Amino acid sequence: MRTSRTLPILVTAVLALPLLAACGGNNSSGSASDKVAITATDTACKVAKTELKTGKIAFAITNKGDKATEVYVYGKHDGAYDRIVSEVENIGPGTSRDMQVELGGGTYEIACKPGQTGDGIRQKITVEGAKANTEAEEEAYDREVEVEAKEHQLEGLDTLTAKVGEKIEFKLENQGTTEHELEVFGPDGKEVGEVSPVKPGTTGEAVITLAKPGTYTYKCGIADHADKGMKGSFTVS
Ligand SMILES: [Cu+2]
Predict the structure, then answer these.
(1) Where does a domain end: 137, 170, 196?
(2) For the chain, which has fewer Cβ within 10 Å, the N-terminal or C-terminal residue?
């Protein structure tokens, strides 16, 4: 009786070996031929390796569920993982399919959809490396506004008028002799974004969406710079 109880554990361990091999980082350079296993069941979506490197990635999908499934790779768009990067449909029970996809740096979600419906069972993956063009576009903005910082002024914003919903890249050029930054606050007084402290002679930028109409205020939050004059307001309508 004792052997029949330990046997299933042994079988599980042996079955797990190929999975472990697939997610080991021990292959010299992680070439495109290393497939990443996705095991789909009716209740799970198991991705053997969730930290990957940019480039062509081959997923080997196996459907171990009773229902036909489909597998999607979703990229992030406006904060939600709903941009379809790749998909494979009609993966019957007990069958396997490969999915090749080229991924730029960033985070993604893999979704297995048992019954081929709904949002699916999600697994987040992280891809290390340069961003793909599609993701760079997400940082797109409507226009750029230059702000000059020196002791103790922030120039270039008092004449700004913006439209509601505009996505503006604020470019802070520090022409002063100490660090400066730019904090922007919405009509309700809550911070909507900031350019982090910038060293003298350098520039920094931040894309800020001006979502609400009203009077926005801005300031340099370092020491008493705002009191000395590094502050002001602009209108969004
Ligand atoms: Cu300052």
Answers:
(1) 137
(2) N
